[in-house]
Design goal:
alpha/beta, Rossmann fold, five-stranded parallel β-sheet, DNA-binding, Response regulator transcription factor, CheY-like_superfamily, NreC/VraR/RcsB-like_REC, DNA binding
């Protein structure tokens, strides 16, 4: 089945270049293009794409605002920030809003395509420089063990498998449960650990484990 993708990017040449390369792939298709934030805010949810490539600094608003406003009604959509900004505030505000990936625009098209497949399968793709900043941030902000104690044994098992790099489908197969059940467990894990994405959850898990 083809991965449906929407692109929100006000730089028309880059937007069209992304569309061309994505549509050339056998396993993905661009279902919508938006060149400004307001248009995306009004119409993005009606397309229900699997993945959104979201520019942060649109001319009329921040991409982060769009995610914050649409996240609840687009619960099954994964957002990847694709931007030229690397400052900490924008990175963490994006992740808090619910973005599952963060790529720098200088990345190769191969990296962008693999990131789309990765996030679709439950991954959290990031450019290397971004991943280092995120890890450094969470090393400075160590959590309390009481959050971890709230997890059920099954939730701890699933979090452990996530930390090993397993995708939702692999976890579902290993535990003989559906992908939807895995997603529900992951949602409970995020809520109980007070995190909004897989990177934060795994960092907390690694801290508890140590």
């Amino acid at each position: 089945m083809s991965i449906s993708i929407a692109i929100v990017e006000d730089e028309k040449n880059y937007n069209n270049a992304l569309k061309k390369v994505i549509n050339y792939q056998d396993d993905m298709k661009v279902v919508a293009q938006f060149f400004d934030g307001n248009d995306a805010l009004k119409n993005l949810s009606s397309f229900s794409p699997d993945v959104v490539m979201m520019d942060i600094q649109l001319q009329d608003m921040l991409g982060i605002e769009i995610i914050e406003k649409l996240r609840k009604e687009m619960a099954n959509t994964q957002f990847i920030m694709c931007t030229s900004f690397e400052d900490d505030e924008k990175i963490f505000n994006s992740l808090k809003a619910g973005a599952m990936g963060y790529l720098i625009k200088g990345e190769s098209m191969d990296k962008i395509l693999s990131s789309i497949r990765d996030v679709y399968n439950g991954g959290a793709p990031m450019s290397l420089s971004i991943a280092r900043r995120v890890l450094g941030h969470f090393e400075r902000k160590l959590p309390e063990n009481k959050d971890f104690d709230e997890l059920t044994e099954r939730e701890k098992e699933i979090l452990g498998l996530l930390s090993q790099g397993l995708l939702y489908k692999e976890i579902a197969d290993q535990k003989f449960i559906s992908i939807d059940t895995v997603k529900k467990h992951v949602g409970n894990i995020y809520r109980k650990l007070h995190v909004s994405n897989k990177v934060e959850a795994i960092n907390k898990f690694n801290h508890f484990k140590n």
